[in-house]
Amino acid sequence: MKCIKTENAVGQVLCHDITQIIRGVTKGPVFRKGHIVTAEDIPVLLSVGKENVYVWETDETMLHEDEGAAVLRDLTLGPNMHATEAKEGKIELIADCDGLLTIDRTRLLALNSLGEMMIASRHGGFSVQKGDKLAGMRVIPLVIAKEKMEEAKRVAAGAPVFQIHPFTKKKAGLITTGNEVFYGRIEDTFSPVIEKKLGAFGAAVEMHVILADDPAEITAVIKDMLNKEMDMVLCTGGMSVDPDDRTPAAIRNTGTRIVFYGAPVLPGAMFLLSYTDDNRPVVGLPGCVMYAKRTIFDLVLPSLMAGVPVTAADLSRMGEGGLCLDCPVCTFPNCGFGK
Fold this sequence. Notes:
One of its GO terms (biological process) is Mo-molybdopterin cofactor biosynthetic process. One of its GO terms (cellular component) is cytosol. The protein has 339 residues and is an alpha+beta fold. The chain has 3 domains: 2-55, Alpha-Beta Complex (Molybdopterin biosynthesis moea protein, domain 2), CATH 3.90.105; 62-166, Aldehyde Oxidoreductase, domain 3 (Alpha-Beta Complex); 171-318, MoaB/Mog-like domain (Molybdenum Cofactor Biosythetic Enzyme, Chain A). It has 11 helices and 19 strands. The strands form 6 sheets. The chain has a 6-stranded mixed beta sheet with strand order 15-14-16-19-18-17, sandwiched between helices. It has a 4-stranded antiparallel beta sheet with strand order 6-7-11-9. A hairpin with a 5-residue loop joins strand 18 (272-275) and strand 19 (281-285). The radius of gyration is 27 Å and the shape is elongated. The model has no long low-confidence stretch (mean pLDDT 91).
């Protein structure tokens, strides 16, 4: 690629798009890469501020910006998504289905730390819908050294940086605990909330049992639901540290592996997550899930619906932004940017 005076460009092949921006009217290319410049094009090029243009010349050590972006695409494009054609050197990734977006943050950071290239994405760990824009990427200069892109391949080798895990229809067992509900002193207003949240993912409550605060009985029913092939078991109520709250002990007594009890998120600190040996979640839900619009449950539920195990490290990281759920300005986690 070489730079020449625009007046001398007749007959030359442009090696990049020429963009015109008129505020409130248009933003887009007036000439595409590969266009052969004619005499009539010269006034147009000058009118968009191009006193000089870049035209093709052979250089085996360099890649055009579109070719560099294609390297980034190949390193990041995962299952259940597709890439757009390069436009003005930029490629975007688009979701092909509803699911959970996961990101290899270590390799994404490595790529963005190389310089002369960038990848911007949505937050990982949240739901995406078919058609959502997931990421955009490009190299910064018009041409980039092939050696630089080989380095990108080295630091990001392995599975794709971005992956979408489709949601699957789950069968849930729901256990409502509490003497006040069991004896009919108050109405069960917890279960309809859970059913609605699960229904948004196409899941259904296949078994529902209301129990008194009896840890042994709660444990027995959890085991029974698992034996009857429920994909997950959700226990509501009895999750605080009061002496009468027995649900955490009941879950522990099932023999499941406790991942976390006490999440760094408000509302939802008294959340408990555990897994069976075959990775089916058994969850203890605090009372805030019943009345708060968004809680820790809303952050974890997409992973449960996609069958992606949630780790202790995942929950610990939620402390940053863990006060955002009650923000009156945004709709986190639905906004995708966690403002």
